[in-house]
Amino acid sequence: MDSQTLLNLALVLLFVLVGGVFAGTEIALVSLREGQLDALERRGSRGARVAKVARDPNRFLAAVQIGVTVAGFFSAAYGASTLAPDLAPLLTGIGLPDAAADTVALVLLTLLIAYLSLVLGELVPKRIALQRAAGVALVVGPPLDRFATAVRPVVWLLSRSTNAVVRVFGGDPEATGEEMTDAELRYLVAEHEGLDDGERRILVDVFDAADRSLREVMQPRGDVVMVPLGASVSDVLRTVAEHPWSRYPVHGENADDVRGFVHVRDLLGVSPDAPVSDVLREIAFLPGTNRVLPTLTRMRQTGPHIAVVVDEYGGTDGIVTLEDLVEELVGEIVDEHDHPLPVPGTSDEVEAGLSIEDFATRTGVPLPDGPYETAAGYVLHRLGRLAEVGDRVPVPEVLPEGADTDGVGVQVGELAGERGGRPADHSAAAGPRGAGTGGRRARGAGARSRDTGVRLARHQQHVRRQGVDGRGLRTPAGLSDDLRAPLGPQAPTATAPAHRAASTSGTASTRSGCVVHHR
């Protein structure tokens, strides 16, 4: 092999590598995310130049294609024309006819150059560029910018021709790419290897919170403890003693006439005979359609950590606190005043007010979608009336094919306890805190009375996993009365019902709950 043949081989290899540089440059610039472009701009003039090139895809793509095409053309054409005459005599020497040797040599060299172009000119540089997009872009971006300037007339012609063809097919020549959808972003978060389970869970909760309204996370009106405007400080202190929370809405004529709220810290050092109006604070009113995240930002900026949620008619729907909203993002906030509830046997117990999504997560029993948001809502929807002791609601959707449709369901039982209103906030002793639990309510066997966010003598939903011999649904007596949900009618009591939000004291009552048993 003479020196001229070696030179020809070197030139072919050079053309292949030049094409590879252009191919890698294309992938590096296309792969840069917006955050990476912003970071490059802050790294100096070279980074800013690279970011400028990357933000003009029509220009750099045209320049790259010119480079790739020219390099590929020269490698194939030059290699075939200069190396084929050197290969043909070798083929003749192994027995090929002279007429066929030239053709076979040309085909073999073309295939060899194509192989080198695919490996060294496409796959290797593109893979490296994908792995180190920012670093590669910093190296090759400025030379590409100068090359694009040098071939500007050709780039202009190619760009105009491309834009015209794109318009013919109904595309937008100025569009740079599709926006990432919420589903794609959620998938990226879920599959990101750099996040641990806790970080991933928080990010997923943030995405979920973006779709939630205040109506989904508020404490309902019937679960709120309010104090009347005409009450004295001593009256409020008695309420605080019964319900150790830190913020209580104050109402006028009724629960729709909320005048403000009182903080237990303001009661210290005040005459017991003073009216509660002397320590009244302003309270915000927010529509139930407001979204969680904007409301969280607003409450952080404005100061008061409690707001009244109103319906479209201006009536009181419930309350929401800063803690309710924060818990939508980070989960339950536990402090020294939160005590786990006793759990009978090995039951996994959750509140009937649990959302159907969290109900399925906790119990493994997916409830079908419908015009309800909670497990209790599912029971009422299926019954079409208030639940009574012994009512059974099947959940056939969770059964395997061919199974008995009576195997999974909800049966209503009876519970007794003291019923009281839901206080607006937690822990007078501990100082100000947000109230409530967020839209998820109680969280399984470790749930606490504050988690349920609810009135203490109302119904309870238990989810119990039975063994293979367990069948049917029943409600055991004597279950904890700290988790409640509105399922059935109230038994007669000696005092007036305490279901109004204006209630300041509890009354004895017996109400029904429900238990989910499944195989």
TrEMBL record:
InterPro entries: CBS_dom, CBS_dom_sf, CNNM, FAD-bd_PCMH-like_sf, FAD-bd_PCMH_sub2, Ion_transp-like_CBS, Transptr-assoc_dom, UPF0053_domain. It is found in: Cell membrane. Residues 456-465 have a biased composition (Basic residues). The keyword Repeat applies. Residues 263-336 form the CBS domain. Residues 416-425 have a biased composition (Basic and acidic residues). Gene3D superfamilies: 3.30.465.10, CBS-domain (3.10.580.10). Residues 416-519 are annotated as: Disordered. GO terms for molecular function: flavin adenine dinucleotide binding. It holds the Pfam family CBS. Residues 485-513 have a biased composition (Low complexity). This is Hemolysin family protein.
